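User: Okay, second chain of the day. Same drill as before: sequence in, structure tokens out.
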Amino acid sequence: MAEWQTVRLGTIVSTNQSTYSPKEDWQFVNYLDTGNIIMNRVDEIQYINTSTDKLPSRARRKVELNSIIYSTVRPNQLHYGIIKEQPENFLVSTGFAVIDVDFEKAVPDYIYYVLTQQEVTEHLQAIAEQSVSAYPSIKPSDIENLELLLPDKKTQGKIVAILSSIDEKIKQNNEINNNLLDQALTLYATYFAESDKNGFIGDYCTIKSGFAFKSSWWTENGVKVIKIGSINQDNLNLAECSYVDVDKIDKAKDFKVGAGDLLIAMTGATIGKFAMVPYCTETLLVNQRVGKFFLGDNPVEKLPFIYCTLKQPDVYYEIVNRGQGSAQPNISAADIMSIPCVIPTADVLNTFNDTVQPLFDLIITNQQENQRLSELRDTLLPKLISGELDVSDIQF
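Assistant: Same drill. Structure tokens below.
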């Protein structure tokens, strides 16, 4: 059996050690904001030419390889990651705590997994909700004051190997899905690149904002309700849902969703992001301000065309731009439905959807597998980190 000791995290890590100064005069910056990473999955790194574009005031934190970044605002939204690939002139937002691990004392990936436990995020969220700032937030010291069980480095490495093998499979599935989506978009361009915008999104399908659940209905478990925070671009995070009792299903029956349904964020910082629902055996409902595209009884049959349409830069930017103009970005279902797009003849449309549907079937299947792998990892994680599962006899 490995020997474990209880340590304060601040004794084995340092936080926010390196800050960028404009005096360094970088000609360009690769910048990652808090909203562009969820559960170690990066949505977008922004390239900024500092000679022509203003650097965001939040672009200040320098990171190193194996730095852990952890959002100090609303920890329960899971905006965290560990840096395994570092582009040149890389900065992250001051909304992150940048955590660097003492290699002599701990394995960075082990500390990363400790910090991603549900128990830890719930603890930090509870601290955040007691803050007096405009948004529920924590201080770096709140992270440093965490206590954890720390085994020897060899045992840490074994635990990391088990958990990272699951994450690697998830990563591979995401890469496959990106390739499948690229193929679909190439076919879309082949069919429609030369076509004029002769209609509107509403000519293809109806969109409605989700059901307005009462705040008093939320429960600790039950039927999952998809909120805006669950929607990452091209990926739906079903681990980040709220719950209502089963008796609310009939009230929100028009907003039940299943495989192939398409959802879009209609307000806030994630406005315009959209994702398809993977194959799933459990009942899923949609909350207000999440738009549901009504695509029929078998939505995956109509999914390819509308998904590829929304992926067109001019269509996506139109959605985002229409949502601007107020303190809280917001767009209505009618606004989305009135956005111009190509509407081909029925024969061409059916041919395209029939050709591309197998690609989307594979994407949805891979997303389902990723949901299962994530659940497996999240089940194993606390058992491994606590020493409940003994890894001493495992050989790698």
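The CA atoms of residues 223 and 248 lie 8 Å apart.

User: Thanks, on to the next one.
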